[in-house]
Amino acid sequence: MKHLAALNKYFWKYRYRFLAGIFFTASSNYFAVLAPEMTGYVVDKVQQHLSSKPTAVPKHYDQFVIAMLGEVEKLNFTQLVIACSVIILAVAIIRGILMFFMRQTLIVMSRHIEYDQKNEVYTHYQKLDASFYKTHSTGDLMNRIAEDVSRVRMYTGPAIMYFINLVALIAFSVINMYRKDPGLTGIVLAPLPILALTIYIANSIIHRKSERVQGLLSDLTTNAQESYSGIRVIKSFVQEKAMFGFFNKNSEEYRKNAIGLAKVEAVYFPSMTLMIGLSTLLTIFIGGNAALHDPHKIGVIVEFVIYINMLTFPVSAIGWVASMTQRASASQKRLNEFLHTEPTIKTPEQPIVKDGQLTGDIVFKNVSFTYSHTGIKALVKFSLTVKQGQKILILGKTGSGKSTVGQLLLRFYDPDEGAITIGGKNVKQIPLQLLRNNISYVPQDVFLFSDTIGNNINFGLQTKAPFEYIKQSAANASIDAEIEELPGKYETAVGERGVTLSGGQKQRISIARALIKQPQIMLFDDCLSAVDTKTENRIITSLQNLLQNKTAILITHRIFTVLNFDQVIIVEDGRIIEQGTHRQLMDMDGYYAELYRLQSETPGKEVMV
Ligand code: ADP
Ligand code: MG
């Protein structure tokens, strides 16, 4: 329960709404208990009319009812019955209106809290480090922001509303009942706690079972989804039957559990009705016996039966409220776990670099880095000096540590040893946003958002760029002509439901997105791997013109045919094994020279490192 304390700040934020909600709930229940009292009164009147023995207005009624009855008493019998019916109807309408406001305040408050909480979680997610995303699955993150937040809402909204409702109803009806017959009150209320407890237990069982069913359903969905997205692989390996068998097994498991759940529910609802029926029976039996000796009790019995029926739903809701609160507490615990995770990589408290001070000088000094969750040593004593405006090529086999160089420069991770400086300032001392704004990054894994091509390219900027600007970037990335051929041109949607682009096309859109930003430093991580040699040459030539005063680092596992780099670095197992200009490396006659010769012997052929 202590986890839910995290929500107090929201209750405080919406305190006026909350207080109004409590007021409406309480007052709607006040009007609710007037109806049974009026009914009891009318029954008594009928009884008296039949036995023709007039009596005064009973004193143990609610003050409001007594005041109204003072007027009603003056009427003749028929008018009295009609007046009472009208009063009952009016009271019900007032109650209904108050209930409307009760929901409008409390449930609306919970929706506001849900909205705030979703934003809080989402904003926090965005701050967390790259390593956090490596250790938590996307499914888990999605679940917390969707599932857990809505479970918490069941607590801040319905659970709290039903609880206040119950407390108010019990208070008002027990006062009314006690005033009329304390003994009978005790007897008829006795089964209600048992009812609440039974419902709580049954609810917990149903909840456990439905959790399992939910889990199985989510497995089934994942299973089906994978079959759809991997349909071509399935068909080409003729695995339709096997996939169906797998799906069928999951489906069968789901069916068994769902039927189990239906069975428990089938027992649950009739038993609940039975318990309620027993309470009513008890009232009629005991009250009826008493009425044999005192005919004035008949009105009271009728009144009590109505109270019992009014109380059973809220009382049975206690069990529901308790299990909702428990679930909300478990969900809030999960949310707190994330919300209390502090990013380790953040803007320094006193950054030493201000806007516009960054240059393109980059120095890696004895940098070592190990991925902590796998223990893989990705870089070992890596040193590299890049001057403003230089073009660097980093060459190496897959897994040699090239991408890690980029990730460290962007501060997705911090090095374990050594330091990285830009313009002489340690990257740790530079405000994060400034650092990342200063670098244009084309990641190795292309990711395009489900949006138009134009918007995907514009994503590189914080503001909306003029169309010519977007088009120019695309042209620089050698993709403009191909986009113009698409039916919607720059308005064509990409992503899951958009057009299917080739890997090379996606890579070039991703390059255009980076080029539009035009910062001091450009970082291209293996971003031409899916592009043919001719296009690759075109892009590199265009980049060389475009990036004249900018620092550019190109990472690749493939040697380029157009070479005009200030430095070429060959990486292996996180270490630099060869370093120099093209000329120097050729003179060294090492690994690079051998690769280059291979490349020249068969022009047009791609030579892998
Ligand atoms: P390259 O880009 O040269 O292919 P990387 O820098 O991606 O190499 O990877 C270097 C080493 O670090 C590899 O052994 C790889 O398996 C490992 N590695 C890369 N990224 C991660 C990560 N996020 N978590 C754990 N290990 C990683
Ligand atoms: Mg890589």
Structural commentary:
The chain has helices at 8-13, 15-32, 34-51, 63-72, 77-127, 130-135, 138-180, 182-189, 191-229, 231-236, 240-293, 297-339, 402-409, 432-437, 453-458, 467-476, 480-485, 503-515, 533-546, 582-588, 591-601; strands spanning 362-371, 376-386, 391-396, 417-422, 425-426, 439-442, 521-525, 551-556, 567-572, 575-580. The mean pLDDT is 83. The longest helix is centred in the middle third of the chain and has 54 residues, at 240-293. 31% of the residues are buried. A hairpin with a 2-residue loop joins β9 and β10 (575-580). The two termini are 58 Å apart. The chain folds into three domains: 2-339, ABC transporter transmembrane region fold; 346-438 and 521-609, Rossmann fold (3-Layer(aba) Sandwich), CATH 3.40.50.300; 446-518, Rossmann fold. A six-stranded mixed beta sheet has the order 6-7-8-3-9-10, with helices on both faces. The chain has a four-stranded antiparallel beta sheet with strand order 2-1-4-5, with helices on one face. 63% of the residues lie in helices and 10% in strands. α16 crosses α18. It is elongated, with a radius of gyration of 37 Å. The structure holds adenosine-5'-diphosphate and magnesium ion. Residues 134, 371, 374, 376, 378, 396, 398-404 line the site of adenosine-5'-diphosphate.
